[in-house]
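User: Structure with heme C, tokens only please.
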Amino acid sequence: MKHWKLGTALLLACALCAGLAFAQDDLMTLNSKAMGPHERPLVVFTHNKHSANIECITCHHDFDNYFNLKSSEGLLCSECHKVVPDAKNKVSLTAAFHKQCKDCHNKAAIKGNPKGPVMCGDCHVTPERLPEVLPEAKNMAKPKGK
Ligand code: HEC
Ligand code: HEC
Ligand code: HEC
Ligand code: HEC
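Assistant:
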């Protein structure tokens, strides 16, 4: 009986620590190397929270010659979207991020959920303001640099 209780306590503790680890992993600091040093504060993105309600392929897309949708899961956006766009892909890296993030937030706002930011400073949040805007980020190491 005693052992059983100890086992349960350990299980609970593990579930808790796993939960915490998960919360940390969820926060993805977007920092495309191709962009070089950033002008704006780095964007902290709740990847898992977004993936819970949105299909992977909505963001991790690719298109064949007939513009049919394919998956590009596992690839960075910068593999296809260049800082200076080329003939192969006309959407620049910054435009790709901005359009994908903001188009969806705008659509969600029209449908009645205004929680997806569309203003510069609400995505490019300064490290000082981050815990206020994104409470999950309270315990995370401050994003380095810009
Ligand atoms: C919905 C979130 C969002 C909003 C709103 C937003 N951005 Fe961004 N922005 C991003 C993301 C994500 C990146 C790509 C960051 C990366 O991968 O390194 C980016 C990249 C950039 C970059 C290139 C990297 C750098 O910092 O030099 C600039 C400049 C920029 N944004 C400026 C702006 C300005 C100005 C506005 C307002 C007009 C704005 N952004 C609004 C999310 C956003
Ligand atoms: C709302 C948009 C969105 C959704 C939904 C989404 N992702 Fe992502 N994911 C991103 C962005 C943005 C990045 C950062 C890409 C970059 O920096 O170029 C990323 C990064 C990743 C990475 C890391 C790539 C690397 O090398 O670091 C993996 C793996 C990944 N996503 C898998 C998934 C899977 C699996 C799903 C579905 C369960 C999913 N994503 C859903 C937007 C999304
Ligand atoms: C395997 C290649 C590939 C990857 C990786 C990729 N894209 Fe794209 N994306 C494309 C192609 C091809 C187009 C069409 C480009 C054109 O019209 O010239 C496109 C178009 C877009 C567009 C404009 C069309 C639309 O859907 O609104 C946005 C925005 C975009 N991508 C965002 C992203 C973001 C953000 C990522 C990373 C999460 C990403 N893409 C990753 C290939 C890719
Ligand atoms: C396909 C739709 C979709 C895409 C693409 C998307 N978002 Fe969101 N985002 C949402 C919705 C919906 C919410 C509001 C979630 C809620 O109700 O709490 C949100 C909320 C947010 C928030 C507020 C804090 C949070 O996580 O709840 C941030 C910051 C954010 N998004 C950043 C981004 C960035 C950066 C990108 C692009 C890399 C992006 N989003 C792409 C739908 C999207």
